[in-house]
Amino acid sequence: MTQHPLISVKDLNVHIDGHHILKNINISIPDKSVTSIIGPSGCGKTTLLKTFNRLLDDTANVTVSGSVLVGDEDIYAPHAEVTHIRKKMGLLSQRPYPLPMSIYDNVAYGPRIHGIRKKSELDVIVEKQLKDTSLWNEVKDRLHTPAAKLSIGQQQRLCLARGLAVKPEIILGDESTSALDPISTHKIEDLFVRLKEQYTIVLVTHILRQARRISDYIIFVYMGEIIEFGPTEEVLLYPKEELTKQYVKGFIS
Amino acid sequence: MGIKKRKTEEAIFKTLMVLACILVSSSLFLIIGTIVAKGLPYLNWDMVSKVPQGGFYLGKEGGVLNAIIGSLYLAGGATVLGLLISIPISVYLNIYLKKGSLLSKSAKLAYDVLFGIPSIVYGAFAFSIMVWLGVRASLLGGIIAVTLLIIPILVRTLDEVIATVPKELKHAALSLGATRWEAAKVVLKQIRPGIYTAILLAFGRGIGDVAAVLFTAGFSDNIPKYIDEPAATLPLAIFFQLGSPIPEVQGRAYASALILTIIILVIVFLSHVLATKQNKHKI
């Protein structure tokens, strides 16, 4: 890798309910690029993503060992501050989950909890994030209407704007386009490509074509282990491992 | 099975369902009809604006204002107190604790049992505490007994409502760097209509219960001025008036029941309006 890594995972093992879900994961995810985690369902790709923002903490009977460094900070260190870690990473889930409030308040929510109170400041943030996610022109006349009234594709872009408003370094996407129609999917993919100039983006996807379209690097996970990691072209076109070859050709899914 | 037989089966069960629905809704009309028919002739402005003259058991003059105010104080006080206790319980069990943790499981079992305990037991329990503390039968005693009675109702209802909120909503707030309490506030905002339903159920149960207040709230012909004075309640007033040998006083019992029913209807209506009004941001 030429780029320096932003997330470094060392000897990560995750057990849930006694099952060994992630096995000896060692990986360095490059800064300012799109990295896709691919693999068959149930292989542990979402679990891997959730270890990055410690949302796994919310599940019972989980044990995590090893370390995950974000920058210089080990987010699994005993005294690590969880809210601070999560603030560094925006999460875009499978389906959009806008907060039960207006469009404006959704984007302003993060800045508000982190201490920004001045309306003029919030106005600037809301406008910027909605413009960055190409939503501004669609919603500028109804900022104070419920977010739930937007179409599902618009809601997903709103969720992205909401996440960007807390100034994260990393964007995590968990099959973020799986509930969307092709046009909305395309818009989100375009946004990811544009946003990688400023952010490090890690996506979980089960759509190989999507991984090929937008990612710079690919991690192939199978049965809780990382089988292959490398630049997109290499992994998809010239896989080194037999398992990757089979998955890419569609023999295992 | 032939299509004819399947269609007959369909028809039989549909008829049964429709009949059951008719039975239940007509019994509601019957109850309200009976109360209105028997109570309306005795309902007058004095009933709702004056305290009784000559006692409940024998008095034909005055009204039941003391019981109306007493019931509202009691159910209102208990609902407020109950919410102050049960919202933190629900938030802690459902949002703070991990799903399936031992504490949340055992706490849920405990208030499932509490839910099934008859109200007279709560009354007796509150009464024994009052004796121990040296508190006499009073509004405060009644509020404590009714609060104990409605906490399991509130917690269980809130639990069900919180369970309908997708965990991703909580995760959305958490991943923005929210603390758990901040995430809990988002969830509470989402379930606001459900909270009104819980309040309605608790208030309705509180205002209608006799057994819990029988020993704890006492009875009085006056409107309680302080929380340590005994207070009358509508259900107890109805109970006493119905036991009277005087037909007129018995009629006043139905008028009191009518007043109680109207109060409940107003509460149902209000909570419904509030719930719909709060619904617009719900995802």
Automatic annotation (TrEMBL), chain A:
<dbReference type="GO" id="GO:0035435">
    <property type="term" value="P:phosphate ion transmembrane transport"/>
</dbReference>
<keyword id="KW-0067">ATP-binding</keyword>
<dbReference type="InterPro" id="IPR027417">
    <property type="entry name" value="P-loop_NTPase"/>
</dbReference>
<feature type="domain" description="ABC transporter">
    <location>
        <begin position="7"/>
        <end position="248"/>
    </location>
</feature>
<protein>
    <submittedName>
        <fullName>Phosphate ABC transporter ATP-binding protein</fullName>
    </submittedName>
</protein>
<keyword id="KW-0813">Transport</keyword>
<dbReference type="GO" id="GO:0016887">
    <property type="term" value="F:ATP hydrolysis activity"/>
</dbReference>
<dbReference type="InterPro" id="IPR005670">
    <property type="entry name" value="PstB-like"/>
</dbReference>
<dbReference type="InterPro" id="IPR003439">
    <property type="entry name" value="ABC_transporter-like_ATP-bd"/>
</dbReference>
<dbReference type="InterPro" id="IPR003593">
    <property type="entry name" value="AAA+_ATPase"/>
</dbReference>
<dbReference type="GO" id="GO:0005315">
    <property type="term" value="F:phosphate transmembrane transporter activity"/>
</dbReference>
<dbReference type="GO" id="GO:0016020">
    <property type="term" value="C:membrane"/>
</dbReference>
<dbReference type="Pfam" id="PF00005">
    <property type="entry name" value="ABC_tran"/>
</dbReference>
<dbReference type="GO" id="GO:0005524">
    <property type="term" value="F:ATP binding"/>
</dbReference>
<keyword id="KW-0592">Phosphate transport</keyword>
<keyword id="KW-0547">Nucleotide-binding</keyword>
From TrEMBL, chain B:
<dbReference type="InterPro" id="IPR035906">
    <property type="entry name" value="MetI-like_sf"/>
</dbReference>
<comment type="similarity">
    <text>Belongs to the binding-protein-dependent transport system permease family.</text>
</comment>
<protein>
    <submittedName>
        <fullName>Phosphate transport system permease protein PstA</fullName>
    </submittedName>
</protein>
<feature type="domain" description="ABC transmembrane type-1">
    <location>
        <begin position="68"/>
        <end position="271"/>
    </location>
</feature>
<keyword id="KW-1133">Transmembrane helix</keyword>
<keyword id="KW-0812">Transmembrane</keyword>
<feature type="transmembrane region" description="Helical">
    <location>
        <begin position="253"/>
        <end position="275"/>
    </location>
</feature>
<feature type="transmembrane region" description="Helical">
    <location>
        <begin position="139"/>
        <end position="158"/>
    </location>
</feature>
<keyword id="KW-0472">Membrane</keyword>
<feature type="transmembrane region" description="Helical">
    <location>
        <begin position="109"/>
        <end position="133"/>
    </location>
</feature>
<dbReference type="GO" id="GO:0005886">
    <property type="term" value="C:plasma membrane"/>
</dbReference>
<dbReference type="InterPro" id="IPR000515">
    <property type="entry name" value="MetI-like"/>
</dbReference>
<dbReference type="GO" id="GO:0055085">
    <property type="term" value="P:transmembrane transport"/>
</dbReference>
<keyword id="KW-0813">Transport</keyword>
<dbReference type="Pfam" id="PF00528">
    <property type="entry name" value="BPD_transp_1"/>
</dbReference>
<feature type="transmembrane region" description="Helical">
    <location>
        <begin position="195"/>
        <end position="219"/>
    </location>
</feature>
<feature type="transmembrane region" description="Helical">
    <location>
        <begin position="12"/>
        <end position="37"/>
    </location>
</feature>
<feature type="transmembrane region" description="Helical">
    <location>
        <begin position="72"/>
        <end position="97"/>
    </location>
</feature>
<dbReference type="InterPro" id="IPR051408">
    <property type="entry name" value="Phosphate_transprt_permease"/>
</dbReference>
